[in-house]
Amino acid sequence: MGEERIAIITGAARGIGLAVAKRLAAKGDRIVGIDLQEDLLKKSMASIGDEKKALAIPADISRPEEVEKVFAKIAAEVGTPEVLVNCAGITGQTGMPAHEVDLEDFDRVYRINLYAAFLLTRAAVKAMLPAGKGRILHVASIAGKEGNAGMLAYSATKAGLIGMVKSAGKDYAETGITINALAPAVIRTDMVAAMPDHQVKYMTDKIPMKRTGELDEAAAMIDFIVSPECSFTTGFTFDLTGGRATY
Ligand SMILES: NC(=O)c1ccc[n+]([C@@H]2O[C@H](COP(=O)([O-])OP(=O)(O)OC[C@H]3O[C@@H](n4cnc5c(N)ncnc54)[C@H](O)[C@@H]3O)[C@@H](O)[C@H]2O)c1
What we know:
Elements: E1 6-10, H1 15-26, E2 30-35, H2 38-46, E3 54-58, H3 64-77, E4 83-86, H4 103-128, E5 134-139, H5 142-146, H6 152-171, E6 177-184, H7 190-193, H8 197-205, H9 215-225, E7 237-240
Parallel strand pairs: 1-2, 1-4, 2-3, 4-5, 5-6, 6-7
Helix pairs in contact: 1-9, 3-4, 4-6
The protein binds nicotinamide-adenine-dinucleotide.
Residues 10-11, 13-17, 34-37, 60-62, 87-90, 112, 139, 141, 184, 186-187, 189-192 line the site of nicotinamide-adenine-dinucleotide.
């Protein structure tokens, strides 16, 4: 087991975020979990360990002042983060053709999936630069590469996230900080359970392996991407689609 790293994980209350938090904690990292759902976040972090092992910081990452506060608290009370895994994200309305997309819904999806990712990247890089090392990973989606029908805001913001990672990865390529994305197809989580059956079927039917991905498969890949061993890849979007992606 290596030296204890501080790993910030957003969307850590459940789903992919919680699975990653558990895996990194088991390998020796100190977890700072961030999520909107305060009670669930606290319960989830407590299931990993005490506050020294897995600290819960409830926050809305789409608000610049909250992101600033979170990073100030981490600097003051925990230390210098080495890892950021951004799993917070929302689908917004689904099954909605482009001309019926609600403006407020589009804005909400944009603020959480893309704007928040920018805020987090900015804050994490500032914290990591003096140490000259860091791993930042944003969970995007195959929808950002291919576009899912009925999910315009989601697909567009995830494509934006992939673009942001390409750019930011190059900005810090010589600093020891890598910035990558992961593009999963369907992983069975609460987010997917909340979607209409026909939308989930549409997405699963496109997977050549003809099955959904498992949380453990997502956590294992993220674990590698944010490990010190994954040191010659930045600005890249890793695939986790059971064969759906061809680039
Ligand atoms: N599950 C899938 O099939 C799938 C596929 C591709 C991509 N993804 C992406 O993976 C990520 C995690 O997905 P999941 O399936 O675990 O979802 P999930 O809904 O189970 O978990 C997401 C978490 O993010 C939190 N969150 C949402 N908005 C927030 C905000 N503004 N501030 C702080 N926390 C916030 C939620 O409270 C929730 O706990 C998302 O970005 C999602 O788009 C998921």
